[in-house]
Amino acid sequence: MILNDAALQRDVLRARAGLLRSYDPLVEAMGDLRRATSDLRAAAGIAVGASAAEIADRHGRLMAAVDAQEDLLEAFKSDNAVLQNSRRYFGHVSNRAAELLAGAPGQDLIHAEVAALSHAMLPKPIAGRTCAHPSIV
Fold first, then answer.
1. Average of per-residue pLDDT across 81-101
2. Dihedral class, residue 94 (left if φ above 0, else alpha if ψ from -120 to 50, else beta)
């Protein structure tokens, strides 16, 4: 259980940083967590009496926690997809603006503003993406 949860947390962090291009590892880790929880329920079948009731109660709370974690994971995947797509699109638009403004009056000031905005919006490079225009850092 602990290793499955650790793998899930690691992959969430990788996805948030833009280092995980597919959510398949997240889905797999969540499936592993569900299977481990089911295995615990099956193992609890050997208990009897008050112990069985306590194990069933704890297992129910564990299942509720796993359900809540899965809901949070689904919300994260949706929000993160929007964020990553927005970051990529912003980089594209910034590069395009720089190309269109080349040679325009006051271009140095405009390039400086676009560079500052890009730096604020894209504090970390997106994996596998470099900026095509040298004035945008």
1. 84
2. alpha
Nearest Cα to Cα of residue 41 among 58, 29, 23, 22: 58
Domain that holds residue 96: 2-121
> Rounded to whole angstroms, how far apart are CA atoms 137 and 130?
9
Would you state the pLDDT for residue 68? 96
Q: Report the Cα 67 to chain-centroid distance in Å.
A: 18
Q: What's the distance, Cα to Cα, between the start and end of the chain in Å?
A: 43
Residue 22 domain-assigned?
Answer: yes
The CA dihedral of 70, 74, 79, 85, to the nearest 10 degrees, is: 130
Q: Classify residue 137: in a domain, yes or no.
A: no
What's this model's pTM, rounded to 2 decimal places?
Answer: 0.70
